[in-house]
């Protein structure tokens, strides 16, 4: 039996959980999220708790679905109550970020700025628009109730210009550590 799956999820006040068949809909102050659970797993909502039941604990795949379903539902409850955030940084001289008509425009050293459409459930807050060299980064914050959507959009942003190991230029998560390499060493001629 899954250790994670057998823990019940407490429903905080102000959160409404509805179930119709295998579909679970969770509504809270930050929005509404919906998920269709696997047919192998049963979800029970009673006494302000969500319990995930695995009818066949001997089946290895069902045990995996048991823990995964519990984690996904727990993330939905956290998302509609407090939400999720991801802070990102851009290092590099002349690199900047701006929000323009529903798109995130990244100027990161290419001939044309990269434009990424912002998903409807993700909010972007730009704290520092332009980077000043490799010391002061451009900083922006992504926030959403949907953890998967937020993580996917953050990964797409980072993929535009991943940090390079020599000077550290590029887009990175604020808590990411970039392992730096030493550049070429020139020998003095004699």
Total tally of structural domains: 2
CATH C-level label of the largest domain: Alpha Beta
Residue stretches low in confidence (pLDDT < 50, at least 5 long) are none
H/E element string? EEEEEEHEEEEEEHE
Beta-strand proportion:
35-45%
Distance between the termini: 72 Å
Using only C-alpha atoms, the radius of gyration works out to: 22 Å
Task: Please tell me about this protein's structure.
This protein is of the alpha+beta class. The chain folds into two domains: 9-81, Ribosomal protein L6 (Outer Surface Protein A, domain 3), CATH 3.90.930.12; 84-173, Ribosomal protein L6 (Outer Surface Protein A, domain 3, Alpha-Beta Complex). It is 19% helix and 36% strand. The protein is built from two helices and 13 strands. The strands form four sheets. The protein has a four-stranded antiparallel beta sheet with strand order 11-12-7-13, covered by helices on one side. The protein has a three-stranded antiparallel beta sheet with strand order 1-6-5. A three-stranded antiparallel beta sheet has the order 2-3-4. A hairpin with a 2-residue loop joins strand 5 and strand 6 (49-53). The longest helix has 22 residues, at 60-81.
Give the helix/strand layout.
Layout (H helix, E strand, L loop, with lengths): L8 E2 L5 E5 L2 E6 L2 E6 L5 E5 L2 E5 L6 H22 L2 E8 L4 E5 L2 E5 L6 E4 L4 E7 L9 E7 L2 H14 L9 E4 L17
Antiparallel strand pairs: 1-6, 2-3, 3-4, 5-6, 7-12, 7-13, 8-9, 9-10, 11-12
What's the quick description here?
This protein is 19% helix and 36% strand.
């Amino acid at each position: 039996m899954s250790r994670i799956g057998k823990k019940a999820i407490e429903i905080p006040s102000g959160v409404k959980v509805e179930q119709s068949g295998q579909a679970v809909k969770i509504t809270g102050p930050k929005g509404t999220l919906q998920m269709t659970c696997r047919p192998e797993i049963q979800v029970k909502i009673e006494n302000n708790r969500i319990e995930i039941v695995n009818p066949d604990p001997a089946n290895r795949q069902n045990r995996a679905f048991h823990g995964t379903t519990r984690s996904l539902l727990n993330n939905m409850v956290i998302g509609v109550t407090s939400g999720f955030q991801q802070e990102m940084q851009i290092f590099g001289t002349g690199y900047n970020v701006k929000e323009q008509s529903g798109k995130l425009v990244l100027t990161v050293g290419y001939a044309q700025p990269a434009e990424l459409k912002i998903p409807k459930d993700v909010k972007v807050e730009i704290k520092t628009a332009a980077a000043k060299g490799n010391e002061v980064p451009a900083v922006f914050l992504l926030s959403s109730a949907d953890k998967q959507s937020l993580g996917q959009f953050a990964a797409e942003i980072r993929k535009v210009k991943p940090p390079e190991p020599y000077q550290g230029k590029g887009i990175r998560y604020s808590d990411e550590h970039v392992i730096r390499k030493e550049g070429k060493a020139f020998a003095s001629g004699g």
